[in-house]
Amino acid sequence: MLKTNENKLVELAMQCKPGPPRIRPGWKVDYEGKPFILPSVGGITLNIQVGDSAFGLAGDHIEPGASCSANAAKPFEFPNNSLQVLSCVGNEAIIVSGEAKGKKGVVLGHHGGSEHVIIDFSKQILEQLTYDDKIMIRTKGQGLKLMDYPNIKLYNLDPGLLKKMKIKGLKNKKLKVPVTTIVPAQCMGSGLGSAHVAAGDYDVMTSDPDTVKEYKLDQLRFGDFVALLDHDNSYGRAFVKGAVSIGIVVHSDCLLAGHGPGISTLMTCSTPMIEPVLDKNANIANLLKIGAKRKMNRPRKKK
Fold first, then answer.
1. Which long-range contacts (CB under 8 A, 24 or more apart) does 150-154 make?
2. What pLDDT is stored for residue 100 in this prediction?
3. What residue spans in the chain does CATH classification 2.40.10.170 cover?
4. At the N or C end, where does the chain have fewer CB atoms within 10 A?
5. Which CATH architecture has domain 10-139?
6. Domain 153-283 falls under CATH 2.102.30.10
7. Tell me, what's the pLDDT at 297?
8. 63-120 pLDDT per residue, tens
């Protein structure tokens, strides 16, 4: 078992609520010069959930589940900036008002630009939610460290989820981390160069069909754990040869130039201390039995 400083972490309650979809009037233009008007960022997404494909949707930058903020009108200001930094993937979210009061969900990650925390709830709960309902997130994870691997940094990761990720320590002081996809450095686009990674995401560019096919990028699903080669996220998102970062897919494929499925950072190292291993089941939906892998309560058959 990986040794961490979990017992030293601070757990803070943060309040948020779902925000309406953010759609600007008028046409957008894709990387081929074609105009489009489609559903986009934010909202309570009723029919898309973690574990579903992040490709092929009639939408752009789609976020599964409930897209939440502490202040939708001022997404880059207090208290929403605190919510973004403190919320971690795997944190528990509890609805504290409205018809779905008391129901629980799981934080899936952050989406930069919209400054949303994305939360998975069952489809039944999503149908009960309104944009006035309040949600409390038990934020815990920023500051999490691997005691035996000081060169591998962790961000945005609930310690409970870390324990379920089937990570193995190797004799050469490396970690073997299961991922569904290994992404080459040249594919990383929008969000590259951000000053820190304790909020937001950055995109896997999908505008080149041959590259998408070669690396099977079109098989990415919401909630997949992925490896980003030659990318160091230690103190911002940067190209560093030999570095490895691990992230999670938080939003869908995109039509805009420089964009694609969004990745929230979970682990990173500036030297090749992380060894990604392909595993088609390396998805948060499988590990936590949420989203598309959630077992539905079926009515009992009458005798």
1. 151/269, 151/270, 151/271, 151/273, 152/267, 152/268, 152/269, 152/273, 152/274, 153/233, 153/234, 153/267, 153/268, 153/269, 154/266, 154/267
2. 97
3. 10-139
4. C
5. Beta Barrel (2.40)
6. yes
7. 47
8. 999 999 999 999 999 999 999 999 999 999 999 999 999 999 999 999 999 999 999 9
